[in-house]
Amino acid sequence: MTRVVVAGIGLVGPGLADWATGAALLRDPGGWVTAVTVVPAPNRLPPTERRRAGTVVKASLVAADQALAMSGADPATLPTVFTSSTGDPLNCHLLCEALATPERLVSPTRFTNSVHNAPAGYWHIATASRAPSTSLAAFDASFAAGLLEAAVQVQASGAPVLLVAADVPYPEPLHAKRPVADTFALALLLAPGNRGRTLTLQLTGDATATPCPHAGLEGVRRTIPAARALPLLMALAGNAAADVVIEGDTGWALSLTVGAST
């Protein structure tokens, strides 16, 4: 069992522009209206890097900056965990197209953005951070795996860790094989201690995931891997204590207890 404090939250997703407005909608989902995710330009990146970065990078950095603004933490000192099921799907598609031509020429920018730790790289360069960083993928369980990794790092080190999860749709024909409905990104600044909004995690065997009580948001949860975080975000948006189960991969799940707001 691992206990951490949620010191900062960031969010961008369908009908959820940011955590400040999204929290109110998640408390009262009747006001939520589905809309295609709009990812704003990440202010932390200079214009040249914004043009080169893919949507998964931009969404990750936007969510991370929201969490940092809420917590007041210094990004240059924060270890990070970045997790994504998709990585950069458009870049993957364009690389496949380039490799299918007789010339097989791949641009340096495409190659740079092809690695799974590209969002972490952009973030740590932009924040001048030399802190450790972990990037991982676990298919539909990527958020659960990232949350577990970040929480264990907090407990082991006694220091805050920034968790960022993001997924982006694939273009066709990859979309037909791996449908992801829209872009969704979130960030959680996890810290040690017992003061503030606590989150207690326990690794369990197979368990039924907690659904979203709103049908539209449940559709988002089911169709975007990173959006499996929605029941947890809904609990954090409220003030009461709550129990949440987030499914992992075959044979395991995360049982979470969110402490009441103090």
* End-to-end CA span: 22 Å
DSSP strand content: 15-25%
CATH fold group: Peroxisomal Thiolase, Chain A, domain 1
**What is the total number of structural domains?**
1
Radius of gyration: 18 Å
Order of helices and strands: EHHHEHHHEHEHEEHHEE
Top CATH class: Alpha Beta
> What can be said about the biggest beta sheet?
8 strands, mixed
Structural class call reads alpha+beta
Strand ordering within the main sheet: 3-2-4-5-1-6-8-7
List segments where confidence is low: pLDDT < 50 over at least 5 consecutive residues.
none
What would your notes on this structure say?
The radius of gyration is 18 Å and the shape is globular. α1 packs across α10, α3 packs across α6 and α4 packs across α5. It has 262 residues and is an alpha+beta fold. The chain has a single domain, classed as Peroxisomal Thiolase, Chain A, domain 1, CATH 3.40.47. It has 10 helices and 8 strands. The mean pLDDT is 94. Strands 3-2-4-5-1-6-8-7 form an 8-stranded mixed beta sheet, with helices on both faces.
Keywords for this entry:
8 strands; alpha+beta; 37% helix; single chain; Peroxisomal Thiolase, Chain A, domain 1; 262 residues; eight-stranded mixed beta sheet
Task: Describe what is shown at a glance.
With 262 residues, the protein is an alpha+beta fold. The protein contains 10 helices and 8 strands.
